[in-house]
Amino acid sequence: MFLTKLAFKNLMRHRNRTLITAIIIAFAIFFYIIMDSMIGGMTEISYKNIIDYQAGHLQLVRDDYWEDKDGLSLENLLFVDQPKMSLLESIRGYKSSSPELNFHARLNNGINELPVIGKGIIPERFKEVFAFEDQFIEGSIFSSEENKVVMGKRLADLLKLEIGDYITLLVRDKNETFNTIEAEVSGLFHTSNPNVNSNIVYLPLKIAQQALNVDKQVSKIIVKLEDKDQAMVIADELESKLKRIDDDLSIYAWEELEAISVAGAKQMGNQLIMSIILIIAAIAIINTVILATLERMEEIGMMKAMGLQEKEIIYIFVLESTGIGILGGIMGLMLGAIGVWVFANYGIDWSVIVGNNVDISSFGIPVIGKMYGTWNLKAFIFVFSFGVIVSLLSSILPAYWAASKDPVKAIYHR
C-alpha cells in the first residue's frame, strides 16, 4: 500500500510532466478514434451508394449469367413471368422490384463517342427501387413509351450534351449484329455514386429489348427490402423455392456483389492504415514514457539509497506509467467522443474542401458531397486498452535498467 500511495503522490508531485505525457497519449487515442469514425463513415456511404443506385438488396438472375455478370452477356437472360413475381412478392420484408436489361454500348453525340453501360428499365418500377427521384438537376426521367434517355450530368458534360439533344447508342444485338438506338436526352442526374454519374445511360426497357433482339427477356430482377441486413437470410430462404420454378435461377444478396467485395478489400486496406497509425501512436507513447523515466535517474538513486529494492522501484514506475496511461486514455476518449459527435452530426462536405469541380472519387474516396462519421464503441474500448497496456509495458524495461544501476552512479547520472 505504501508503494502504491508513493506512486500516486509522484503523479501529483510531477503534475506538469504527468499532464504533458497524458496529453500526448490522449492525442494519439483521439486521432485513432477520429480516423476509425471517418473510415467507418466512408464504408457505410460506399455500401449505401451501391445499394441505392446500382444493386438493390437482392438480385434474381440465372446462374450462368451471374458467373459472367461483368460481361453483360445477352445470353442466359430471363423472362419476367407471374410465378417469379409471385414468389418475389411473397418475400418477408418485400417493398418493390425492378427488371433491368444491361448491355455494353458506345454513346455517340455525332462527333465523339464514349463506351458506356446501357440499362433498359421500366421507369415506374425503377423509381420504387432506386433513390433517383430527387437526383435530377435538369429535366426528368422518361415514360415507358418515350424514345428518350437519361444519364449523369458528368457523362453529359464529357460529350457536351444538354436536355433535348439527340444521341446514338451503338450496340451489338443477341446475334452479334450491330444496331443503333437513336434517342433524345430527357434528364440529367447527379447522384452520390460516381460510377452511375459517369458510365451509365438509362432508356425504356422495350426500346432496349427491341434493339438487342432479346424478345421480352431481362438480365436480372432487382428487389428492394425493408431491411438491408436481412438480405442474406432471405436469399438463403428463397433459394430452394426458386429451384422449384427453374433449376437455373438463383438470388444473390447485396453482400455477394463484386462491388461490395471491392469495398471490403478497401476496408482491409483501411485497417492496414489504422494499424500503422496505431504503431506510430505506440512509438509516441513508448518514447514519452521512456524519457520520463530516464529523467528521474537521480530520484531512482535516492530511492535505492533509502533501501528500496529493485522490484519495488520497478513497481512504482509501472504503476505511475499505468496511471498516466489511464489519465491520457480518458482524456483521449473524451476528445474522441466530442470529435465523433461533431463528425457524425455535421459531417465533412468534400465539395467545400476540394471544390465543386474536383471529383474526389478519382483520389479513391468513393463519395460525393457530405460524408458523416460513425460511432464504433469497440474502437473506443480497444484504443483505450491499447494505450494503457502500451504505457504499462513501455515503462518496465527503462525502470528495470535504471533500478539496477549503482545508487551513487544513478544520483550523479547526466
Describe this structure in words.
It is found in: Cell membrane. Its main location: membrane. One of its GO terms (cellular component) is plasma membrane protein complex. There is one protein chain. The chain is α+β, with helices and mostly antiparallel strands. It has helices at 2-13, 15-55, 63-67, 82-89, 123-129, 153-158, 194-199, 205-212, 231-245, 258-294, 297-305, 310-346, 350-354, 377-403, 407-411; strands spanning 58-62, 78-79, 94-108, 113-121, 136-139, 148-152, 166-172, 178-189, 200-204, 217-218, 220-225, 249-253, 348-349, 370-371. It folds into 2 domains: 1-51 and 261-412, no CATH class; 58-227, no CATH class. It contains 15 helices and 14 strands. Helix 2 packs antiparallel against helix 14.
**Rounded radius of gyration (Å):** 31 Å
What oligomeric state do these chains adopt?
single chain
Number of strands: 14
Helix content: 55-70%
Topology as H/E string? HHEHEHEEHEEHEEHEHEEHEHHHEHEHH
Report the end-to-end length measured between terminal Cα atoms: 32 Å
Strand order, biggest sheet? 3-4-9-6-8-7
